[in-house]
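Review form for a predicted model. The reviewer records the input and the model, then writes brief findings.
Reviewer: anonymous (R2)
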Amino acid sequence: MRGRMSRVAAIGLDAAEWWWVERLMDDGSMPNIAKLREQSVMVPLQNVTAYRAERAWTDFVTGRDARTNDYWGTTLFDPATYTASMRGAHDGPAFWSGTGLRSVIFDVPHSVLREDVDGIQVTAWGAHSPQYPRASFPQGTLRAIDERFGPHPAFDADSDLGWNDPDYIARLTEALVVGAQRRADAALWLLEHNPDWQLFVTVMSETHSAPHHLWHGADTRHPLAGTRASGVAREGMQRVAAALDAAVGRIVENLPDDAVVTLFSMHGMEASHDLPSLVLVPELLHRLTFGKPFLEDVHQERWVADGMPAVDPEHRYPWAIMGTLYDRRVDRPLVERVMSLLPVGAHRALRRLARRPEYPALGERDHVILSESTLPPDRLLTEGLDLPFDWAPPVWYAQNWHRMPAFVLPSFSGDAHLRINVTGRERDGVVDASDFRRVGQRVIDEIAACTDPRSGLSIVESVEWLRGNPDDTGPDADLIVRFAAPVDAVTHPKVGLIGPLPHMRAGTHTSNGFALISGPGIEPKNLSQHPAADLPPTLLDLLSVRPADDLAGSSFAAEIVGPVKA
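Model under review:
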């Protein structure tokens, strides 16, 4: 039997893959986290597969699932205009809202400022994709952190396409190392100045930012593991891991003795298989519909001869990958075709006429970290965000979506999120509602017919229908196709070879999570796998706080320390 725990400190390692963390603990690279493991209950967590990148943190923060929240992710599709756009974080109660717990909530992705939270709230200090402006309550707390410790140097500068640029990798690594150190400083300062806290939640973004670009330095099976930048990426991952371990060690060492420590991850990382969803499948559907390409195929002879990953020597700068890919459009306006013949210096003057997304080379962009927002909370989500979406390759095909039976919506999970263009639901729908499933299956069959020209194997791993008919409620996508392995080209029996195309990033997300839970009266052991949704009610249960009735998961606190004492 147990009584009430005095405090719970939950430290998230954003997108940390367990086997990678475990390997680093075993080889001595993460001694502080290894010490925690020795004292902890270890719980494998399994998150959702559909919209796993978009939903993981919203589901954690709210403790509720997508249907309860009516929030499936950070993108929106408008069937009346055939446009896709970004949206901010879900403005709903957190699982710690209204509990009466004195809380310190520091830099948790997708968290929003809430008046029903008792304590300190700081958003978007350094989080990867926070989906909410830099803000705090009480107002001025974030500004004080910036002034005392400095902002996170990688904030809003960790998404360049730079896995192949050793200079970018080195600069990103240094920014993440410094950011981890500053995060520990700021967290300890917040706890010191709020000594009566009961719940502390913070998330280390560095384990998310680094693997997106450096995963070919962590996974020896990665198809990019033999490229020129993989050695620098390996060193970068080691440095970031050491900085994270030191930061976690400092925070834990300075926590009160009565604190239960939970080190956790809500999802993980693996070698990126983004290209099919980003470009290859959108291009396939375009060619099947219209009988002609949207993007030019280049370097095919060199790729077939050399077996090279599709990266050209000029792709030294991160955004150059995206810019070169964008310039492969067959139906580019005349002004853009003229631009391609002009000197580089003449391009900027014509970009507005061409409406070409601007992808400046590394070093040309001004990295400005905005100060804390002074907008009131009710305006932060509507006026406090700048969320451009023209960088996403699936959006380039939007001009033709209204004429296609099915198309790929932009996403962040590495899967193809497919929408059927249904009459009466979409403005210019071309598929009768009675043909919804038949057309969807036909699209699945066409994608499944694609093979990896390197291995000869099908690119499809699995398919999930998200609605049974067009009128069912749910996310924007009707179905999701998941891919088996990283590919940079596909071969289709009707349209032939598509690609090769340059890899955008090195890592994408898995649904794998974990939790290490230690503290007074907790004996080390391993539990069986739990849904990731079980973690929020467990944290509340450890504090003997009754979770809200609509939380998605069930507490496993009794498996850790026994039932609550009456």
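Findings: Confidence is low (pLDDT under 50) at residues 342-364.
Further findings: The two ends are 9 Å apart (CA to CA).
Recommendation: see findings above.
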